[in-house]
Design goal:
This protein is mainly α. It has 3 helices and 2 strands. Strands 1-2 form a two-stranded antiparallel sheet. 10% of the residues are buried.
């Protein structure tokens, strides 16, 4: 039992470090989107994918340990467990905020493009019978102002 608890603590410590790295990358992603640094954004997204894969692998190892739930609240493990949970919650909040920002920006750009370059095409309906606008096919923008 103690061996499993020690292994669990090692895995949680690894996850804590991975979440620190993930939160730092999420901050970089936020800045890249804000500053419109698309190449840096792509690099940050690639790094966060690697960190996410490592986290999932560690979580699978943690799940495979099959320890009882009361072990998570023991003196040795509780602090690191709470740290992992709080960082995981913070990461989810950051992801949600970025997702909302991207969807709002996409909607805004789509409306602006539709007003500037109206798309001709058939009327589209969803499965529920609601009217939808066709998506923009292509737009060429001269960037030399």
């Amino acid at each position: 039992m103690e061996k499993k608890a020690a292994e669990l603590k090692n895995i949680l410590t690894l996850q804590d470090k991975l979440l620190d790295s993930m939160l730092a990358e999420q901050e970089k992603i936020h800045l890249c989107v804000k500053n419109r640094s698309w190449y840096e954004l792509n690099d940050a997204l690639n790094r966060i994918r690697i960190i996410s894969d490592d986290f999932v692998e560690a979580d699978e190892r943690r799940t495979a340990l099959n320890v009882e739930k009361n072990v998570y609240f023991s003196k040795n493990i509780a602090d690191i467990f709470y740290s992992v949970r709080s960082k995981l919650s913070k990461s989810k909040i950051e992801n949600s905020a970025l997702s909302k920002y991207v969807s709002i920006a996409k909607s805004f750009v789509s409306e602006v493009v539709e007003k500037c370059v109206p798309q001709q095409g058939n009327v589209l309906y969803t499965r529920n019978g609601q009217l939808t606008k066709p998506s923009v096919q292509s737009v060429l923008v001269n960037a030399s102002f």
